[in-house]
Amino acid sequence: MNAAAEHVELASLRGCHPEDRVADYLEQGWWRRETLLDLFDSHVRSRSTLFAVTDPTNLPDIAGMAPESLSWGELGDRVDDIAAKLHVHGVGRGNIVAVLLPNSVALTATYFALWKLGAIAAPMPASYRRHELRRIVESSGAVGVITTTNIYGRNPCEEALSLVEESPSLQRVFTFGTPDESAGVPLDGPPAPGIAVDSALESIASVRRTVNDCVTICWTSGTEAAPKGVPRCHADWLAIGQVAQDGLQTHADSVILGTFPMVNMAGFATSLLPWLLSGAHLVHHHPLDLAVFLGQIQRHGATHTSMPPAILSMLLQNPNLRTVFDLSSLRTVGSGGAPLPPGVVRDWQNDLGIEVLNFFGSNEGVCLLGAPSDTPDPMIRAEYLPNYSAPTRTWATPVAARTSVRLVDVSTGSEVTEIGGRGELRLKGPTVFGGYLEGTAEASPFDADGYLCSGDVFELCGDSGEYLRFVDRSKEIIIRGGMNIAPAEIEGILIDHPAVADVAIIGYDDAVLGEKCCAIVVPAPDAEVTLDDLVSFLRDRDIASFKLPERLIAVEELPRNPVGKLQRRELRVQIAKDG
Questions:
Q1: How many other CB atoms sit within 10 Å of the CB of residue 119?
Q2: Is the Cβ–Cβ distance between 310 and 512 less than 8 Å?
Q3: Is the peptide bond before 190 cis (omega within 30 degrees of 0)?
Q4: Which pTM was predicted?
Q5: Which of 218, 237, 491, 578 gives a 20 to 30 Å CA spacing to 230?
Q6: Closest CA relative to residue 219, chosen from 437, 50, 69, 398
């Protein structure tokens, strides 16, 4: 196969969207013609001496890595160094590499190093363990894993190395952190030799890029036990970033404190993309440590950040914290993932002078933003999101006019048009992905008209339908502190416990994390089940800690309909009654 033919084949494999859609979106100006790398390289050239990225001060406790702060020029050099080390070991165009790193300078540089080489990042939360890592490596066909030698006292590098013999595609494990001869290929430490850098740069220069090239495969739990891969290209990520940027209004002098794990829609939209679009200073954080978080706002003069609703409420209720830490630099806070208390949003704006944005998004491309410029009244902004298809309104982000939104009654298939009517949110436009990674989803998420079926139920509100109010998730996913948990995954493991005859994992409300997991179990005959036993059973199978059940209810039988489908709503009622 000649080089030209090989490039065409690889480009078609990496493209996230049909070529006619790409051409249409570019012609209409719905997508930028620049790539993520074009923006990055521009900042490296024009802002070389200015701060670009800073690690959290508690990174040694999180990952055993020394915190650092790099200018744009230094970050550019670090990216080239990592790219050279990856290139030496065969990572190149079209390769998929799984990434398991905490929010850090290392994570930021790793993304751009992979993208420069034409490779695709398959990121996952740092709390994922061998069980989740194996599934993602096998689902994506990843040739490598990039991780650390320490995450909260465990060694994810060892977990990754143990998969090399099991996963046919996996060839290399790369690491950051404390050097270890058996820990795979180190990506920090001494710089790559000049000849290696030159070779990598020569390879990078030969890569022909398009805005449709896949750069990430993010993972969404959905309602299935196995994760679903969500491929994303330069263009649709930048469309999502534009929505967030139009609300946050970051600029070159902004300091963005990123609190969501930078591995999916939440982290990319609230930190990485606004940072890249504006050339600002990105300060990393996660998991949420309140003292560290408030200290970072004060130390770096953070102007933009994100917080879950519970933390917004807690800070209002603890004026002493606001006295100890100077929060006066903050201008805008993004929030979402759970209902926003209207009074909290009002008090942040009126009493603290800080505007709270209402975000609602998904990995697949739902991207709604309640911005102060669109909805000045904080009480309304907290409760409602914009209906981008409302004929009587225009919105701050131009992406709104390029996005078609409808509510559909899932029982009848008819569009909901009456105020107060409820239906599933469906949409299409430049932020919507092209479809799940082949082999990771059983059905298409699009309806016959090409609209993404979100699985989220909204109510049509406002005088003329200009607002949407979130009602409920039609999917059964549990969201604990912003992290998705698929009940079927945990149920599929626990059913193998010898003391478990039947089991359901149900989410229940939590004031801080939004939801936690409750295991409702039918014990096997003459067996006794304890929560500690179930947790130990899951830990032995290397399940991420955030997925572990935190309550247990034993029942004689689980409610099921005539065809055997679990009636989860009845179980939620039972959990509420049991307190």
A1: 25
A2: yes
A3: no
A4: 0.87
A5: 491
A6: 437
Class of domain 243-451: alpha beta
Q: Which two tokens stand for residue 490?
A: 């945990």
**Residue 263 in tokens:** 């591995």
**CATH architecture label of 478-578:** 2-Layer Sandwich (3.30)
pLDDT tens per residue, range 156-199: 999 999 999 999 999 999 999 876 666 789 999 899 999 999 99
Residue 562's Cβ-count burial label (10 Å; 0-12, 13-18, 19+) is exposed
- CA-based nearest residue to 434, from 6, 22, 89: 22
> How far apart are the two ends of the chain, measured CA to CA in Å?
66
Structure tokens at 387: 């209906």
Locate CATH 3.40.50.12780 in the chain: 243-451
121, containing H or E segment: strand 120-123
List pLDDT tens digits, range 350-384. Answer: 999 999 999 999 999 999 999 999 999 999 999 99
CA–CA distance, 363 with 231 (Å, rounded to integer)? 9
In angstroms, rounded to a whole number, what is the distance separating the alpha carbons of residues 76 and 261? 22
- Report domain 31-50+61-209's class: alpha beta
In the chain, CATH 3.30.300.30 covers 478-578
Residue with tokens 């489908």: 565
